[in-house]
Amino acid sequence: MIQPSVRSELVSYPIRDIVQEAKRLEKQGTKMIYLNIGDPAPFGFRPPQHILDAAAEALKQNYSGYAPSEGDPELRSTIANYEKVAPEDVFVTSGLSEGIDFLFQALVDPGRNILLPVPTYPLYLTKQRLSYGTIEFYDCDSNFEPDVDNLRKSITKYTRALLVINPNNPTGSVYSRKTLEAIVDIAGEHNLPIISDDAYEKLVFDGEYTNLRTIHKDVPLVSGNSISKNYIYPGARVGYIAFHGEQWSVMKDALQRLCNQRLSVNWEMQRAYMAALKGPHDHIAKFNADLKKRRDILAKRVKEIPGLSLAAPKGAFYAFIKVDGPWKNDAEFVRGLLKEGVVTVPGSGFLPTDKGKYFRVVFLGSPEQINEAMDRVARYMKNSK
């Protein structure tokens, strides 16, 4: 038997791990409602037509070779204009996920860490482990807004950077300007850079949104983004990281080396992303209206079910629902819910188990799907007492 490496055992991705059990039950006849993964396509959402047209035109124009490792020059310039940086500050990646991978490879040595919010997106946990870094968190309050006092206390001499995910995955929270300004001040006090995950920045349907690029002062900032969620095209697998500030020159050399070793990002999709950034952006208002409608339905249903509670999301398309009941942990709750035909993700995939029992729901489905899913959740809760 050929054994896998120790490093491979460090990899976990609960958002997709749950699917294997769901598929097994589906083969046995259970009709499943998949609310586990943030992919708009299965729910009938499509990228704007001008983006698809740009991808098709790139194929016609034979953008079939290797692109420059750091990215298509025109796309880098377009991103630079958007981020208010120079083109050489931009590195195009195969989705933001690859950009996250590169940042951890470049920043985290064994025993060091990037300080993560709790709850956090699971990819950050895996990349921290693969870098042999330590898993360190800062807390959020009951509305999933960062607790800035706890953030300050959580910084140690081993901290290399602070991570901010806004709007947040898995909670859908949107951070206040006051909180973000406090994070900038704390980073400045400790001479630490900030990593800003902006993957959902256009998907805000309640309240005001502030991006760190507009308020980071002289604190070094790296912004990460992609075509996946804001432009409803996750299968394109193209994103970027953009460095803000003068302190990143050596880090940019490291990023160039990391980009070189994987050759390039799909060139046709880079042309599509350029079209996405240039616009028009008419789809965003409608998409946000659709998301708000679905959020409202979900929040109402959660409120009606004893044992469930929710800090209503203001952005993205996730709800992080707290559950009280007889289950020993949220993984047990989610496994039981599978038998009712509802696929969600246990909260323990996003946060330490001592923080309570949660499960994450994607509310991209139709109102009918959301209501049917919550009917099944209510039945499961009632029958489990």
UniProtKB/TrEMBL annotation:
Its EC number is 2.6.1.57. Its cofactor is pyridoxal 5'-phosphate. Residues 31-377 form the Aminotransferase class I/classII large domain. Keywords: Aminotransferase, Pyridoxal phosphate, Transferase. One of its GO terms (molecular function) is pyridoxal phosphate binding. SUPFAM superfamilies: PLP-dependent transferases. Gene3D superfamilies: Aspartate Aminotransferase, domain 1, Type I PLP-dependent aspartate aminotransferase-like (Major domain). This is Aromatic-amino-acid aminotransferase 2.
